[in-house]
Specification:
Length: 155
C-alpha cells in the first residue's frame, strides 16, 4: 500500500507539472493611445480587425488592431461616451453618452448619425447589436432593457 501511495503522489505531481506547463501564456500585444480621458467602452468588429472605443473625452475612436493605428476619431458628442457597440456587418456603430438618455446609430464609413433612439428615463450604460445587426438592445440606470428594430428605428 505504501508503494501505491508513493506512485500515486509521483504521478499526481507529474500530472500537475505537465498541466501547468501546457497552459497558454498571455502575451502583451500593444497599448492603443489616443484618448484624453478614461475609456469607458470598447467593442471588436466581427471580423476581428478593428476596435471601436468610447471615452469620457467625448470621442469615439476606430482602431486597426494589427497595427494599433487610430483610423478615425468621431467627434461632436455632447458629453462622455458611456457605451458603444459595432454591428456584425461592420457598417454601423451605436453609442450613448451621458448628456441625455438616448443613443445614436451612425454609419462607420463617414460617422454620420442616422438616428437617435429615445425612450430611457436615465443614462444608458450598455448597448448591443443582435448577431444579424437588425436589432439593438439598450440597458440603462432605469433598470430596463429596451429592444429596438434598427431597420424601422422603433421598439
Amino acid at each position: 500500500m505504501k508503494t501505491f501511495n508513493i506512485l500515486f503522489i509521483i504521478f499526481f505531481l507529474f500530472f500537475i507539472k505537465e498541466t501547468y506547463s501546457q497552459e497558454e501564456k498571455n502575451e502583451f500585444v500593444r497599448t492603443l493611445k489616443g484618448h484624453k480621458n478614461r475609456v469607458n467602452s470598447v467593442h471588436f468588429s466581427s471580423d476581428g480587425k478593428y476596435i471601436i472605443s468610447g471615452s469620457w473625452d467625448e470621442t469615439l475612436k476606430l482602431w486597426k488592431i494589427e497595427s494599433g493605428e487610430e483610423i478615425r476619431t468621431f467627434k461632436g458628442y455632447d458629453n462622455n461616451i458611456n457605451a458603444v457597440a459595432y454591428s456584425s456587418d461592420g457598417e454601423f456603430i451605436i453609442n450613448a453618452d451621458t448628456s441625455d438618455n438616448n443613443f445614436r446609430l451612425s454609419r462607420i464609413s463617414n460617422g454620420k448619425i442616422l438616428n437617435v433612439f429615445k425612450e430611457h428615463k436615465t443614462k444608458i450604460v450598455s448597448l448591443a447589436f443582435s448577431p444579424d445587426g437588425n436589432y439593438i438592445i439598450s440597458g440603462s440606470e432605469d433598470n430596463n432593457l429596451i429592444f429596438w428594430d434598427r431597420r424601422e428605428s422603433k421598439q
